[in-house]
Amino acid sequence: MVVSGGYERYFVxxxxxxxxxxxxxxxxAPARSGxxxxxxxxxxxxxxxxxxxxxxxxxxxxxxxxxxxRQDFEIVLLTDDGTIYITExxxxxxxxxxxxxxxxxxxxxxxxxxxxxxxxxxxxxYAVETEEVFAENQGSQIYGVLYRPxxxxxxxxxxxxxxxxxGSYRNGAQYAQALAAQGYxxxxxxxxxxxxxxxxxxxxxxxxxxxxxADLESVIAMLQAREDVDDDNLFLLGASQGGLVSAITAEDxxxxxxxxxxxxxxxxxxxxxxxxxDSADEVPDSMHYLxxxxxxxxxxxxxxxxxxxxxxxxxxxxxxxxGDRDSLVPLSYSERAVEVLPSAQLEVIPGAGxxxxxxxxxxxxxxxxxxxxxxxxxx
Length: 379
What we know:
By secondary structure, this protein is α/β, with parallel strands linked by helices. The protein has two domains: 107 residues, Roll (T-fold); 257 residues, Alpha/Beta hydrolase fold, catalytic domain (Rossmann fold), CATH 3.40.50. Helices cover 28% and strands 27% of the residues.
């Protein structure tokens, strides 16, 4: 096995960004493919060495397709948002080390389709097609992908997926495919400055939960103007930090949002800021946090902020899904949210950490579909 990544041989520039030794041959700059580490498992070490560098440059989707075309080696991929992807040959043999229990692990199947391609739900649902759709926030472009069921006419109930810290629109692909196959429109997008691999404009150094709220509100306005969107049935679906952002956005836009699904929402952020710094004055202009560099505003804006007081006015139906083995955001934060939200339901996913995959994902999707069906207006 050989591992490649930007975790050892790198330096931090004056802009606060990491620059590593693996270069993209098209640009000559450090490869920023959305991956931070790649491990190749094969019998030949020289082959592993060559493949690990190539796969790192490819990025998640191209690397997965490359593996599917050959299947004579196995790979482990770590993305910017901390999600781990393993090929199915490693399923059952791969275990997380000490202190890594909160990471989400997803298995790449030999038959799995790319997030950008149409797919047919195996349960007999609609075929799904995708389209790149852009929103705009104060003159800056927001990139996203719209998933829609093929052959369905008229305005459709619509779900907006918001990714977590350091994530991207790709994190919502599995949810989007499953929901679109059941007749929903689903929009997954990149927050501005939301990750090193973001396709939206904006800088990581300017990002905070409140800039992400503004992005989400711009997305809502864009979708409301579309003829294929049923704006009486517009739902938010957010994961981790995206779940927190979805919650505060629903409160401030309660007339526009029919309901919200929060996946292991990161209500821990305020406490995390208080533990790291005694006051806002101590927050540096930039710092490396989890998977990327953030600016002063990311933590500074959290001082004096009470997220639970902010969200308690939203009276729409809210479904919260949280794993009982989540070490990144303890379950207690969602338990408190259920106490303050007027109409909230908490479902605990047994054995799941910070993210759902395999049986945990299937269970979560069952709860989500049941919730959406019962929450539709005029249904």
